[in-house]
Amino acid sequence: MKSRRRPYSEQRPFDTGGGVWSVPVPIPANPLGYTLIYAIESPAGPVLVDAGWNHPESWLALRDGLTAAGMDVREIRGVVVTHFHPDHAGLAGQVRQESGAWIAMHEADAALVRFMHDLEDGAHRDFQADMLRRAGAGAVEVTEVTARRPRPPAVPDLILQDGDLVDLPGRRLRTVWTPGHTPGHVCLHLEDADRLFTGDHVLPEITPHIGVYPYDRTDVDPLGDFLGSLEKVKDLGELEALPAHEWIFHDTAARAAEIGAHHEEKLRRLAGLLAEAEGPLTLWEVASRMTWNRPWEEFPAMSRGMAASEAAAHLRTLEVRGTVRRVKGSDPIRFVLHS
């Protein structure tokens, strides 16, 4: 079964079969358009996979979409959040407030959510500004990127670990930890139906953002984690994928292989870019020379910040593999091909 992506105005709640409904929830002023929220029926009440963006329009879409599916938001048993990003976790707190539902999240993302709640706005801006400066961003870009801070999502009630079964009576919904897009991203394997809720990990056409925050961390390798997580999903076999964006599709394993090949090619191009450079490049210079879906000059500041974090993730993987190195003592930090 496949449901091609259409503009949000053409989206409707959709019965995917097997007691699972898809409910599109808009993301205001975002090119993705909407998040696909899934409601899984159970004798003890529905469980949601993700909840959507925290916005009045999004809340109405979720509430009314559940009603169209024959469900009442006040009867939701729980919300499993695939990862902490606002288009997935944003409304989980309001669902809990309306229904008393529990919120479940992987322990790695739960730790980030608690950190976000503890971090004051001024400290958050200072952190971002210093990170951007060390990457080689200009003063105007620093100011624009640090101007906004999303509201942190609700702190979860339940912590999930790899392999845990979700509290879903009558069904077998197993947690599959797939770090990369976030440290605690999870897919959810509905074992009694051979279906996989993939969140942002495996999407049918686009690929998720893989970044490093702060950009110059050397204790993590998100892209390496992501590539390993793709292998993990491939091992599950030809499952039907129910992703958070775009459309439902068959054979998760085949698409995971395609995404892995895409990033390996991107790593090869990046190594070639550094080989052709006349000298060490700042992270900002690397990002500006990479191939994106539009010219760097047309990127708004926020998109440049995300592109820099993705460039940092690819550089970090090349560094782990011994292909590139960072110039010792450089500020802004600079990278060269390893000699």
TrEMBL record:
Residues 34-245 form the Metallo-beta-lactamase domain. GO terms for molecular function: hydrolase activity. The keyword Endoplasmic reticulum does not apply. Keywords: Hydrolase. InterPro entries: Metallo-B-lactamas, RibonucZ/Hydroxyglut_hydro, Sec-metab_biosynth-thioest, WH-like_DNA-bd_sf. PANTHER family: ENDORIBONUCLEASE LACTB2, METALLO-BETA-LACTAMASE SUPERFAMILY POTEIN. This is Glyoxylase-like metal-dependent hydrolase (Beta-lactamase superfamily II).
